[in-house]
Amino acid sequence: MRIATLTIASLFTLSTAHLAMTGDSVSIEPGLWEGSTTMTSPMFPQPHVQTQQGCVKESKISPETLGYSENSECSISETNVSGDTLSWSMQCNTPGGAMNGQGSFESKGDSDSGNITMNMNVAGQSVSMEMVWKGRRIGSC
Fold first, then answer.
1. Closest CA to 113 of 12, 32, 25
2. How many CB atoms lie within 10 A of CB 108?
3. pLDDT for res 65
């Protein structure tokens, strides 16, 4: 369970890394961003809330720029862009087991929001985790 929790927790952290545009994407204003993430799961006694800042250098966001690459434990499928919203399905193979999920990311240029819902099997039981975030541009890098 700890490995699955760490994998989900790292998803937002990776979203503030140096970005590269590939595949389906939505526009975002480059600069210094602050984001707040709330993770919930039956595995947690209470929601886990985290706030971070990071420099976004590119003007497009795609599932790949959110931290999924060839070297990642996760792969992306079924990407779709509708207006300012990017959605995708994903599969992750971690040492703790396989996880499947869906994500969405909505950009308003200088603010964003999104969520990822993951489902996994832990010790023979189906467990879900949800991560919801909101972000806003707070200045230049």
1. 12
2. 14
3. 62
Torsion angle, alpha carbons of 10, 74, 64, 33, to 10: -10
* 23 DSSP 8-state letter: S
Beta-ladder partners of 73: none
- How far apart (Å, rounded) are the C-alpha atoms in residues 54 and 74? 22
* Confidence (pTM): 0.72
DSSP letters spanning 68-83: --TTSSEEEEEEEEET
Nearest 5°: the CA angle 100, 104, 116 is 45
Q: What was the pLDDT predicted at 24?
A: 74
Q: Which residues is 40 bridged to in the sheet?
A: 130
Which parts of the chain fold into alpha helices (H)? Answer: 2-15
CA dihedral 54, 58, 59, 62 (to 10 degrees): -90
Please check whether residue 121 is in contact with residue 135, taking contact to mean a CB–CB distance below 8 angstroms. no
Question: Alpha-carbon distance 28 to 46, whole Å?
Answer: 32
Q: What is the largest CA-CA distance in the chain?
A: 47
